[in-house]
Design a protein that fits this description.
The protein is an alpha/beta fold. 36% of the residues lie in helices and 19% in strands. The protein has 20 helices and 23 strands. The strands form 5 sheets. Strands 13-23-22-14-15-21-16-20-17 form a 9-stranded mixed β-sheet, sandwiched between helices. Strands 3-2-1-4-5 form a 5-stranded mixed β-sheet. Helix 7 (132-141) crosses helix 14 (339-353), helix 8 (185-195) packs antiparallel against helix 12 and helix 12 runs parallel beside helix 13. The longest helix is centred in the middle third of the chain and has 29 residues, at 272-300. It is globular. It starts with a strand and ends with a strand. The relative contact order is 0.12. The model has no long low-confidence stretch (mean pLDDT 93).
Length: 593
C-alpha cells in the first residue's frame, strides 16, 4: 500500500510517500525549484518520491492533502467580517486568489497530478483531506518512538487552531485542548520578526539567534499590554497592537508607539534596542510555552511529549521544556513546519483513516535520521565533475574521512555532499558545510565569506553522541539539531570585561570550541551515532582521532536566502561562488587551486 501526502499553497510545500508505515521518501519543493520556502504545488517533490519508490502515480492507493481549504476560507471570511470595515484593501487582495485557486483546491490538485501522470484516474483513488493541526500532530506522534504521549502543536494558524493538544495512544489521537485564531504564539513571534525587519515565516530563527545579544527589557511590557497569560498556559492577545487579521503588515501603529520605534527596515542597522526586543520576545515565548507544558504535565501526568508546528523549531524553547516542564522525554518532528504536514497527513491516513495498528515491537524513531531526499550514483557525480572541468580524486571511505579530517584540522572549510539529502530545515551531515569549531575566527569566516549572512548568526556543533555529555549539559540524544543547551562550565572562557555588549561580545573566546558556542554559552546540538548516521559518525570520529576534539561545525550547504543544495551541480556552483576550500561529493574530492 502506498500513501502520498502533500502540503502546498501557503509556504514550504512538500511531498511524502509511505509504503505501509515506512517512509519511502520525503522532500520539499524548494530543493528542486531553488525558491526559498516555495509554496507552489510540489510537482518535482512528488516526481522524486515516485522515482524513489519505482512506481507511477496510478499505483498510489491514497492521496491526502494536509489541511482543509474550506475551513480556512471560513476563518478568513469570518475574520474580515469581525473587523469590518477595517481590512478592505487586504480583503480585495486576498479574495481573487481564493476565488481563483485556493477555494477550488481539490480541482487544482487533481489538475496538477494529471500533469505528472495523464493516465491517473482521480475517481478511482479520490483525494482525502486532514486538518492542519491533525497533520502536524500526526507527524509528531506516529514517527516517534512513543506508544503513548502528549502531543503539542504550536504554529501561526491552521484552519482555526493556533495551539492544540492531543493525546496519542497506539494508532489513535484524541484532541483535548485548543487555542483558536487570532490568539497565536506563532503569530506573536512572527509579529516581532516583522518588527525587527526580518522575513515572516522564514527568519524567525534569526530573532532566536539575535536574542542572546540583548536584555529582556520589554518582557513586562509584552505581558502587560500584548499577552494575557493564564496559569494553565492559555493566552489571549490584545489585537489593537497587531495587524495580521486584516492588514498588510503584522503590527499596527499602536505596537510602534508602545515600543517607541517604528519597525526596522530590512536593510537597517541592528541596534541594542533591536537586540533587547529580540531577547524580550524570546523570553516571553519561553514563559508561555513553559507555563503551558508545565500545566499539561501536571494535568495529564504523561512522561513523553511530542511536538510539531513552526514554534517547535525554536530550539531554545525545546531545551527548556525538556529541562523544566516535567516531561521526561521529548521528540520533535525534524520537519516541524508545514513541510512536515505532508508526512503527518500520510501517517494520519494509514493509522486513523484506515485503522492500521502500530506494531508495539517497532516503537522506534521512523524518521531514518531525516535522510529521506534524493541521492546520486557515482557515474552521475563523476560526469558532473568532469563536465564542470573540476579536477577530482576518488577515495575509499576510510581514506576520504581521514583526508577530510586533515583538511578541517588545517583550517579549511569543506562542502560535504553525501548520500540522501535531509528532509526539513536542518543539514544533518548529508548536505553540510563543515569546519573546525576550535578556531575562534571560523564563525566570522563562515558568515562573511561563505554564507554571506549576518555576523551575529551562531553555528551548531555535530558531536559524537558518546562524547556529548562531556562537552555539553545534555544527557539525551539530539539527532535532529532541535535542542539548545549550554557548554560545560569547565570548558567555558569568561572574558571578565563587563564593558562589552552587543556584537562586541563576538570578540570573546567563550569556550575551547568558540565557533559553536554562542555568547550566552549555548549551543544547538546535533548528536551523531554510529548506527543512525554511520558515514557522518565515521567522519567526525576521524577528526576526533586526529585532534582529540569530538565535534565539528555543521551548517547547511547553501548561501543565505537559498535552499540547501540538492544536486551535485548546485554543490559545485556553491563551491565556486563562495569561500569553501574543499568539495566532497560522495567518494569524490576536489580542492580549489
Amino acid at each position: 500500500m502506498y500513501i502520498l501526502g502533500i502540503s502546498a499553497y501557503f509556504h514550504d510545500s512538500a511531498a511524502c510517500l509511505l509504503r505501509h508505515d515506512h517512509i519511502v521518501a520525503a522532500a520539499q519543493e524548494e530543493r528542486f525549484t531553488r525558491k526559498k520556502n516555495d509554496e507552489s504545488f510540489p510537482v518535482n517533490a512528488i516526481k522524486y518520491c515516485l522515482q524513489e519508490a519505482g512506481i507511477s502515480l496510478s499505483q498510489i492507493d491514497h492521496i491526502v492533502f494536509y489541511e482543509k481549504p474550506f475551513l480556512k476560507f471560513e476563518r478568513i471570511i469570518e475574520t474580515y467580517l469581525a473587523f469590518a470595515p477595517s481590512g478592505f484593501i487586504s480583503f480585495m487582495i486576498a479574495m481573487p486568489v481564493w476565488l481563483k485557486d485556493k477555494l477550488f483546491l481539490k480541482k487544482n490538485i487533481i489538475k496538477q497530478l494529471k500533469t505528472i501522470d495523464d493516465g491517473w484516474d482521480a475517481k478511482k483513488v479520490g483525494l482525502l483531506f486532514t486538518t492542519h493541526h491533525q497533520s502536524h500532530a500526526a507527524s509528531a506522534f506516529y514517527p516517534s518512538p512513543f506508544n503513548k504521549a502528549l502531543i503539542l502543536t504550536a504554529d501561526g494558524v491552521g484552519e482555526w487552531a493556533t495551539t492544540s493538544v492531543a493525546i496519542g495512544t497506539g494508532n489513535k489521537m484524541e484532541q483535548v485542548k485548543e487555542i483558536g485564531f487570532p490568539h497565536s504564539i506563532g503569530l506573536l513571534y512572527s509579529a516581532f520578526t516583522y518588527y525587527l525587519g526580518f522575513k515572516v515565516n522564514c527568519d524567525e530563527y534569526k530573532v532566536m539567534g539575535l536574542a542572546p545579544y540583548g536584555k529582556p527589557t520589554y518582557v513586562d511590557i509584552i505581558f502587560k499590554h500584548l499577552v494575557d497569560l493564564k496559569a494553565d498556559g492559555s493566552f489571549r492577545l490584545d489585537m489593537q497592537y497587531f495587524n495580521y487579521c486584516t492588514g498588510l503588515t503584522m503590527t499596527s501603529q499602536h505596537f510602534d508607539k508602545l515600543f517607541g520605534h517604528p519597525a526596522r527596515k530590512p536593510a537597517g542597522a541592528i541596534t541594542q534596542f533591536h537586540m533587547d526586543v529580540a531577547c524580550s520576545i524570546q523570553a516571553a515565548a519561553e514563559r508561555i510555552m513553559l507555563t503551558l507544558t508545565k500545566a499539561l504535565y501536571k494535568e495529564y501526568q504523561l512522561n513523553d511529549l511530542c511536538m510539531a508546528g513552526g514554534v517547535a523549531l525554536n530550539c531554545v524553547i525545546n531545551g527548556k521544556i525538556l529541562a523544566q516542564s516535567g516531561f521526561k522525554r521529548l521528540w520533535v518532528q525534524p520537519a516541524a513546519g508545514d513541510a512536515g504536514g505532508a508526512l503527518g497527513a500520510a501517517f494520519s491516513v494509514y493509522y486513523e483513516y484506515l485503522g492500521n495498528e502500530r506494531d508495539d515491537r517497532k516503537y522506534v524513531d521512523k524518521m531514518q535520521n531525516a535522510l529521506l531526499g534524493p541521492s546520486f550514483n557515482a557515474d552521475a557525480v563523476k560526469k558532473c565533475l568532469a563536465d564542470n572541468k573540476l579536477p577530482f580524486k576518488e577515495l575509499n571511505r576510510l581514506d576520504l574521512h581521514e583526508k577530510i579530517a586533515a583538511f578541517i584540522n588545517e583550517g579549511r572549510v569543506v562542502g560535504y555532499f553525501n548520500g540522501r539529502s535531509e528532509f526539513g530545515p536542518r543539514a544533518l551531515g548529508a548536505r553540510s558545510i563543515l569546519a573546525d569549531p576550535r578556531m575562534a575566527a571560523m564563525q566570522s569566516v563562515l558568515n562573511q565569506k561563505i554564507k554571506f549572512r549576518e555576523s551575529f548568526r551562531p553555528f551548531a556543533p555535530a558531536v559524537l553522541e558518546e562524547h556529548a555529555s562531556a562537552y555539553f549539559d545534555l544527557d539525551v540524544l539530539s539527532p535532529y539539531m532541535l535542542l539548545i543547551t549550554t557548554v560545560k562550565s569547565g570548558l567555558r572562557i569568561v572574558s571578565g570585561d563587563d564593558r562589552l555588549n552587543g556584537f562586541d561580545l563576538l570578540k570573546t573566546g567563550r569556550s575551547i570550541i568558540p565557533s559553536v558556542t554562542h555568547i550566552d554559552f549555548s549551543a544547538r546540538i546535533q548528536t551523531v551515532g554510529p548506527k543512525s548516521h554511520p558515514d557522518f559518525y565515521n567522519l567526525i570520529k576521524a577528526f576526533y582521532d586526529l585532534t582529540g576534539c569530538p565535534c565539528l561545525i555543521n551548517t547547511s550547504f547553501n548561501r543565505m536566502d537559498e535552499p540547501i543544495v540538492n544536486t551535485p551541480q548546485q554543490a559545485i556552483d556553491c563551491f565556486r561562488q563562495t569561500g569553501i576550500d574543499v568539495l566532497v561529493i560522495d567518494g569524490f574530492i576536489a580542492e580549489k587551486l
